[in-house]
Write a structure and sequence with these properties.
Involved in the catabolism of quinolinic acid (QA). Its EC number is 2.4.2.19. Keywords: Glycosyltransferase, Pyridine nucleotide biosynthesis, Transferase. By secondary structure, this protein is of the alpha/beta class. The protein has two domains: 136 residues, Quinolinate phosphoribosyl transferase, N-terminal domain (Aldehyde Oxidoreductase, domain 3, Alpha-Beta Complex), CATH 3.90.1170.20; 144 residues, Aldolase class I (TIM Barrel, Alpha-Beta Barrel). Helices cover 43% and strands 18% of the residues. The protein is built from eleven helices and twelve strands. The strands form three sheets. The chain has a six-stranded parallel β-sheet. Helix 9 links the parallel strand 9 and strand 10. Helix 3 runs antiparallel to helix 4. The longest helix has 32 residues. It is elongated, with a radius of gyration of 22 Å.
Length: 289
């Protein structure tokens, strides 16, 4: 899959997003609600304003942010000015808000936490996509190194940044890693047991560290190979060995500075864990109109 082959960015079903947002609101409101807002802001007060970008980035998480306000009061009118996947600059509005002030002020932090975090993931992904694009066909993909409870939202944020998704969990693909190989007694028995235990629709990927291991994986008909921590020269040799027989994925210490050389080796996918586990947030804030 190349970046141009990515599926359209459809919204996640509310059924998936609401439990995350509801849990965050409950965590923040605690046992008695927003003491500050309830004491200071009259019940009839209204708020008009916007969530505004403080820095440049790629937007993601507008649905979660909007839902935070709606769950506290459906009367809050939410207009998304920059949909997910949009680039935004400093001072530009992302979401415009109008409605009961108490609900907007009480939901503010949860909405911003989710929007800033997910926009950070999208922006980090976009930086790698941009760095890799001139050098090859490789798609940037994420891993399972996600924030507990936020996987679906963070993986969608990767797509908002122009990347693609690796497996979502342990149940949708087989990925045989080095510890699996060690326990199974080698690559060949590991692949054979995986094929015997998995259904005919399940893909099998094998992590390899050397070209000799790659040769074993190819001989057993692996659907994909994860070329772990190989330098550009070995990656190029590995791609030549694979010769289209399997999907090639490079992984290990991928940064904006190194991704170009990795892409130039000709791999199909480049996976990076840091775009979900260590991406810095994008600074956004709520301003009164």
């Amino acid at each position: 899959m190349t970046n141009s082959d990515a599926l359209p960015l459809s919204p996640l079903p509310r059924l998936m997003v609401e439990p995350v947002v509801r849990a965050a609101l409950l965590e923040d409101l605690g046992r008695v609600g927003d003491l500050t807002t309830d004491a200071i802001v009259p019940a009839e007060a209204r708020f008009t304003g916007a969530i505004v970008a403080r820095q440049a980035g790629v937007v993601s998480g507008t649905d979660a942010a909007a839902l935070a306000f709606a769950l506290l009061d459906p009367a809050v009118a939410v207009h998304v000015a920059r949909p997910d996947g949009s680039r935004v600059g400093p001072g530009e509005p992302v979401i415009r808000l109008d409605g009961p002030a108490r609900a907007i002020l009480s939901a503010e932090r949860v909405a911003l936490n989710l929007l800033c975090r997910l926009s950070g993931v999208a922006t980090a992904t976009a930086s790698l996509v941009a760095a890799a694009r001139p050098h090859g066909k490789a798609a940037i993909v994420c891993t399972r190194k996600t924030t507990p409870g936020l996987r679906a939202l963070e993986k969608r944020a990767v797509r908002a940044g122009g990347g693609a998704n690796h497996r979502f969990g342990l149940d949708d693909a087989v990925l045989i890693k080095d510890n699996h190989v060690a326990v199974a007694g080698g690559i060949r028995p590991a692949i054979r047991r995986a094929r015997a235990g998995a259904g005919h629709l399940v893909k099998i990927e094998v992590e390899v560290d050397t070209l000799a291991q790659l040769d074993e994986a190819l001989a057993e008909g692996a659907d994909a190979v994860l070329l772990d921590n190989m330098g550009p020269a070995d990656l190029a040799r590995a791609v030549a060995m694979i010769d289209g027989r399997a999907i090639s994925e490079a992984s290990g210490r991928i940064t904006a500075e190194t991704v170009g050389a990795v892409a130039a080796a000709g791999v199909d996918l480049i996976s990076a864990g840091w775009i979900t586990h260590s991406a810095p947030i994008i600074d956004l804030g709520l301003d009164v109109a």
